[in-house]
Amino acid sequence: MRLLSQIMDQTANFVTGQTLITWAPAPARIPKLFLVPKIINGGIAGIIGVSCVFPLDLVKTRLQNQQIGPNGERMYNSMFDCFRKTRSAEGFFGMYRGSAVNILLITPEKAIKLAANDFFRHHLSTGSKQLPLTREMAAGGLAGFCQIIITTPMELLKIQLQDAGRVAAQARAAGQTAATIPKVSATSIALELIRTKGITGLYKGTAATMLRDVSFSVVYFPLFARLNALGPRRSDGSGEAVFWCSFLSGCVAGSTAACSVNPFDVVKTRLQLLKKAEGEASYNGIVDAFG
Question: Is 127 left (phi over 0), alpha (psi -120 to 50) or beta?
C-alpha cells in the first residue's frame, strides 16, 4: 500500500496504443489544525511557567522601574541585591506578590498566543513542509497582536502589585509611617480604574505592550520552529521533535527574543506604572520614555 501511494503521488505516464494517459501528482496535503489541545497545553505551560519564574519577573519589574537619584543612588544595585532585599523585607511569599493575577490570566493569554500562531501558520501555509521565513514572522507577529487583549490588563495589574513593595520602601525612607501607606490589591486597582476611566483604564500602555509582544513573537516563533526542525524526531512516527530538542530550542529562541525586545519591555513597564515613588519621573508616551 505504501508503494502504491508513492506511485500515485508521482506523475506516471503510460502509453496504451496511441493514447497517452497522465496522472498529475497529488496536491500537498496541509496538516489539520487542532486548536483545543494547543489551548489546553498553552494554559498548563503558562501556569507552570508563572509558578517557576515569578520571583525573577518581580525582580525584573522593580529593577526596570527604579530610577537613579541625582548622586547616583539607587535602591537595588543588582538582581541579587533586589532578591535579597525583597526577601528580607517582604518574606518568601512577598516574592510572589501579584502572581494570582498572572495565574488567572496567563491561561487565556498563552492559549491565545499559541493557538493564534498555529492558526495563522496553517492559513499562511504554501503546502510545502517548511513555511517561508516571512510568513513565519507574519504568523508570529499576528499571534503577538492577538494576545494583547489579555496581556495589557494582566501586565498593568501585575506591575502595580509587584512594584508596590519598592514604592512603599521608598515612602518609609522618606519618613512616612506604615499606617499612611495604602495597601493595594488587584481587585481594588481594577475597580478604581473602571470607575474613573472605564474599561479603557485597564488598557493603559496598549501601544507599548503591542510593540513588545509583536516584536517578541516575530523573533521567537520562527526561530523556535527552525531550531526545533534541526533535531531528531520521536520514534513513534509522529514527526515531532524529541523533548530535549524542543526544550533547548525554546530556551534559545526565548532568550534571543527577550534580549531583542528588552528596551521595549522597560518602556512598557514604566508607562504602565500608576503610582510612582516621590520624585520619580513620569512619561507621556513611548517616544518620551525612550528619550
Answer: left
CA-CA distance, 206 to 98, in Å (whole number)?
20
* Three cell numbers written together for 288: 518620551
Asked whether 165 and 83 are in contact (CB, 8 A), the reply is: no
CA dist., res. 110 & res. 124, Å (int): 21
Per-residue pLDDT for 120 more than 60? yes
DSSP 214: H
Q: pLDDT tens across 133-162, in order?
A: 999 999 999 999 999 999 999 999 999 999
| CB-based contact 86:94 (threshold 8 Å) | yes
Contacts of 168 (CB under 8 A, 6+ apart): 181
Q: What is the pLDDT of residue 5?
A: 40
pLDDT band at 19 (very low <50, low <70, confident <90, very high): very low
The C-alpha atoms of residue 224 and residue 215 are separated, in whole angstroms, by 14
Q: For residue 17, is pLDDT > 60?
A: no
- From residue 41, alpha-carbon distances to 35, 177, 216 in Å are 10, 46, 20
Q: What are the grid coordinates assigned to 69, written together? A: 537619584
Q: How far apart are CA 143 and CA 38, in angstroms?
A: 13
What CA–CA distance (Å, rounded) separates 208 from 193?
19
Please state, in angstroms and rounded to a whole number, the distance separating the CA atoms of residues 103 and 213. Answer: 19
How many distinct helices (H) and strands (E) make up the chain? 9, 2
Cell matching residue 144: 503577538
Q: Note the pTM of the prediction, 2 decimals.
A: 0.80
In sequence order, the 6+-apart residues with CB closer than 8 A to the CB of 218 are: 137, 140, 141, 144
For the ranges 56-70, 180-194, 203-217, the maximum mean pLDDT occurs at: 203-217
Over residues 220-237, the mean pLDDT reads: 92
CA 113 to CA 218: how far, in whole Å? Answer: 12
